[in-house]
Specification:
Blueprint lengths: L1 E5 L4 E7 L16 H24 L5 E6 L2 H7 L5 H22 L6 E9 L6 E11 L3 H7 L7 E4 L7 H8 L12 E2 L7 E5 L16 E5 L8 E7 L15 H7 L3
Antiparallel strand pairs: 1-2, 1-8, 2-10, 3-5, 3-6, 4-5, 4-7, 9-10
Length: about 260
């Protein structure tokens, strides 16, 4: 089976995996190292999901924002909570912030994704709780005025990127995993990637292919008979017969699915 995610900015992901006949879901059993492997897979999955959201919605008109809590807010909001409860409450306060911002931006489409963090992504050490958000459709003044619980001085314009996976990884690596808690919160009604699936005929030894002329951004290590393969790439700009760019890339992607 091959699954393809096509984002609006031209980033395409392909995953190929083997599904043996008669496969049934296995019951979970405790295996040494299983939790560690599961966490790694959860991190990888969260990064890819957030990257797809950003690749379909983010551009250089948006902002990367950090929302900090004042000492007074920390004492008032998180008193008596353990670390996990406090992180969940931090996430809830982020949702309340976006409700206020949406009311202030009434009539203007608002798109965002945010994470609640209490961890240093590089060291894994606990730090002061804060919120990181990527926001499209709001101005900087409205963002500052809508955050009532501390300072909001770190507002940076998003840089132009072909692929926002690096930003997604930066955000997710600062999120401590809490059972039952979402790693990031996206806004509703946002653009989503197009998803296509097809059954691949042929040998499992065939390496997953990309569109000719595309720029490969990431590819899993390939060995003959790999059970799972993954590749992410930026497809080539479509051109018309006169050599200029044409609108859309549907035909190029359609041609690609046959390869």
């Amino acid at each position: 089976m091959e699954r393809m995610y096509i984002s609006r900015n031209g980033v395409v992901e392909k995953t190929r995996f083997v599904v043996p006949e008669g496969t049934r879901e296995r019951k979970w059993r405790k295996v040494k190292g299983r939790d560690r492997n599961r966490r790694k897979e959860n991190d990888r999955s969260a990064v890819r999901q957030l990257a797809r959201f950003l690749n379909c919605n983010a551009d250089s008109s948006g902002y990367l924002v950090t929302l900090n809590f004042s000492d007074k807010s920390m004492d008032k909001i998180f008193a008596g909570m353990d670390q996990d409860q406090a992180l969940e409450e931090c996430q809830r306060q982020g949702s309340l912030f976006f409700r206020r911002l949406k009311r202030r931006q009434a009539g203007r489409p608002l798109c965002y994704a945010f994470v609640a963090s209490d961890m240093d992504g590089k060291t894994g050490e606990l730090v002061r709780r804060h919120i990181h958000a990527v926001i499209m459709g709001a101005d900087a003044d409205a963002i500052r005025e809508s955050w009532k619980l501390g300072d909001c001085t770190d507002i940076r314009s998003l840089w132009s990127k072909d692929d926002f996976t690096g930003l997604a990884a930066y955000l997710i690596e600062q999120v401590r995993e809490v059972p039952g808690m979402m790693r990031f919160i996206p806004s509703r009604g946002a653009n989503k990637p197009e998803i296509r699936e097809r059954v691949v005929e042929g040998s499992v030894d065939d390496e997953i292919k990309v569109q000719p002329g595309a720029r490969v951004l990431d590819r899993s290590a390939y060995t003959a008979g790999s059970v799972v393969q993954y590749v992410r790439y930026l497809r080539r700009p479509p051109r018309n017969k006169r050599g200029g760019h044409k609108e859309g890339a549907k035909n190029d992607v359609d041609d690609e699915t046959e390869k």
